[in-house]
Amino acid sequence: MSLRKQTPSDFLKQIIGRPVVVKLNSGVDYRGVLACLDGYMNIAVEQTEEYVNGQLKNKYGDAFLRGNNGKSSRTRHLLFLTTWWHLCRSQHDIE
Amino acid sequence: MFSKSGPAVPELVDKCIGSRIHIVMKNDKEIVGTLLGFDDFVNMVLEDVTEFEITPEGRRITKLDQILLNGNNITMLIPGGEGPEV
Questions:
Q1: Which of A32, B7, B61, B80 would bridge with B51, disulfide CB 3.0–4.6 Å?
Q2: Of the candidates A5, A81, A84, which has its C-beta nearest B68's C-beta?
Q3: Domain named Sm: which ranges (chain A) (predicted)?
Q4: Is B27 exposed, middle or buried (0-12, 13-18, 19+ CB in 10 A)?
């Protein structure tokens, strides 16, 4: 078993350009190719598909998902509460 | 004279790297996985992950890949935990 220590920022750098699933607290999934991200975990996703309750609802050429990390708890204007990014190693139907 | 406050949270989490960990979230969700790493906000990188949604049916979703779990909604970390009984 390979033990490789990997911090969240290492992980995010590694998955740029790969298909990902971003699952929000609300249960909505966004599947697409991770285009870029910043230190606040704001991310840009290309060829995005929006799944609500497992059903495809929308498609977006580009999607911006707002991260919410930061020391400030005063600014609670969170558009999305991201739960996780799932690195898709297996083939997903992105096309 | 102040007594020592004991190990800090990051120190404790660091001890779990490489082991299984069970994470309870604020909503009705629990995650079990192998901890690969974390950061100052306790965002966590996990692999071989199983997601449990705590519903009357005890729904379970298994993902074998890696995930980055946002630490904002974490309530509790249980080192070596197996997760809820399905």
A1: B61
A2: A84
A3: 7-79
A4: middle
Q: A72 at the B interface (CB within 8 A)?
A: no
CA A73 – CA A44 distance, rounded (Å): 24
- Three-class secondary structure assignment of A33-81: EEEEECCCCCEEEEEEEEEECCEEEEEEEEEEECCCCCCCCCCCCCCCC
Cα–Cα distances (Å) from B3 to B7, B8, B9, in that order, read 12, 14, 17
Spell out which residues of chain B touch residue A89, defining contact as CB-CB under 8 Å: 64-66
B62 min Cα distance to partner chain A (Å): 11
Give B28-83 pLDDT, tens digit per residue. 899 999 999 999 889 999 999 999 988 888 788 878 789 999 998 999 999 998 88
CB contact under 8 A, A68 and B41: no
ipTM surpassing 0.85, yes or no?
A: no
* Structural domain boundaries in chain A: 8-67+74-87
